[in-house]
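Self-study notes.
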Amino acid sequence: MLRVGHIGWLAAEEGPGYKTVAWCDINAQKLQANALHHPGIETYTDYRDMLSKAKLDVVMIASPNACHAEQATAFLNAGVHVFLEKPMGISVTECDRILASWRRSGRNLGIDFEVRISPFARRVQTLIGSGEYGELRRVEYLHQQGAWLAEGNGLWRIRPETSGGLHPECPIHYIDVFRLFAGEVRAVQSIAGPNVLPHYGIPDNVCSHFFFENGVLATMLNTHTHSAVPRDSRQWQNTAAFMHSLGHDMCMIFTLTKGSIAVDFLTPSIQVHRFEEWPRGSGGVRVIQERVEDYSSLGLMGFFHDCSLMRQEFLRRCVEGLPPIQDPVDAWRTHRVTFAAEQSVREGGRRITVDYSMPA
């Protein structure tokens, strides 16, 4: 039976061959409140105490970004399997440190890129892989979301020294999905418009272009200034109509040579379009909607962002002695692209060639 510890998540996960035995969080009140319902789980406010006393086989780390490198390397160096919330670290150097510790450890390292194994991603992979709609040429991703607040976990998200920047937060998931569908990124160029959110130490908007080795172009637009929140948080509803009414939008379009596939993450649904010759014999085409696939029964999170999927699969593979579903080097390469995008923003939109040189 593998002994599992959690930092931040405080999930009481148990399954064939594994069981949660320890929790760690700097918020003692949060620990105490959760421990009332799970008295058999040990609690710690310092990860070093948990590492030395809990005799863990696996640790699941979901602390703020700036803590990841220190905590992950400590557990890997102690011979513990590590499942780590994205990003691996807040810089290329930190990511390299974790990768080097993993290579020495002989243990599993999983990065929580759960979007890549979501129902949406699997369905789009099937559609593109069928060849029915031709070859992939472009990918577009748009996310208009609300501003992180200068309180709670927003305090570390809006500071580059604790978050790593804008791209290592939500966008890194979709950079990873870009790579899943289109292959390797050769270069990236990012431009941010002037900030309007005074409390942000990171850009509140970025438009990034990702140039792939196979000629595919992916474009990503992230903005934090249009999606509103209700004045009374009790009015919040996790429905597409409500979120769209507040200006929230999140979608992805895959353009191929014989059609296109559009994903609406909030509905949730997938539109499939086909190109057909029009007028007949002209050599021109028109775009025809072939069908709309409804995934509302899965719910928003079940469609693209179920955080439990990757975590449970990691635990299963540790029990069975298998490697993680995504090779750690592949996840590390997503981070190299992500931090190249951040570098481009800092350097005024200079096009950056992605450096995949492996750390020593």
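Second protein, same conventions, sequence then structure:
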Amino acid sequence: MINFRYHLASLIAVFLALGLGIVAGSTFVSPETVRALNNSLRRIDSSNKALQTQNDVLAQTNRDLLRYAESSRNLLVQGKLAGKPAVLVSFDTTPGSETSQMASTLVAAGARLQGTVALSSNLALADDATRQQAATVVGGGISGAEALQAALARQLSDALAGKSPGIVQRLIDAGLASRGPGVAGEAQQPPASLAAPGTAVIILAPAQPAPGARPGPDLVRTIILPIVRGLSAAQVLVAVGEDGSSPLPLLAPIRQDSSLRVVTADTVDQPMGQAAVVLGLAEALLTNAWGAYGSGPGANAPLPTPQPPVALTPASSLTGSPTPK
């Protein structure tokens, strides 16, 4: 057995070696080297402070530009959807700030925002438990993942088209959807009367997983695209927005299908994209043109082309009826 004296001798040897190393190091490092190291440290510290100051200035500039962009967005969309009923559909992974900003933009455009619905990612029906929930929601004894997803998409499309909105409340009761928190100026309606015929539907894409993260449920294929196709076939005024931070897994197949009557906008997490949604819907109402806006693949332009102003003749200015040139 190793006794205490051996441990004590070992500890003394270790500390003696450390002390000799410190003495030797301080002896062999010349004063010039120490001064050079100190000068380098001072230069690095000064450069770091300059970069921090520069970063602070850039951050303030970005905040100012964002406020300017938001004010410009509100000015651009003012009155473009005056009195138009609208419903905003998002997902539980859609950033809350993106949803609230889009809702505020619709209100600024004069739309009668009747509410926001956040659909659950479980609507991809990836497990038996959610399939059982979905079967209860859709009713009719439907079983099988594909049949359930088709029934969900069809019933949701009908609800958003103002035909049979009862499924929205059933989804909420089953924990597969929730109502949004609301924004100032919206005209929030109960789920049973959320959408009426003629309501504009705005769909915000779910967020995509971070690079390297585990893939999320395939909501695009299983639920979103079938709903979009159903709304397009029913000739509902519909817009779809995606944030542009990914290769546009939702907007890409929509933009490639020329038969769809859908306004699309990427960068919808930014004021420009939010304005594009409203202006695109307004253009579709006026000209029946369904544009793709933003800066991502398949976009035709950042924003719709402005419509020429309508001139008033002296007579029409008195009666209030505009006369085009």
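Instructor comment on the second fold: The chain has two domains: 4-58, 83-209+216-293.
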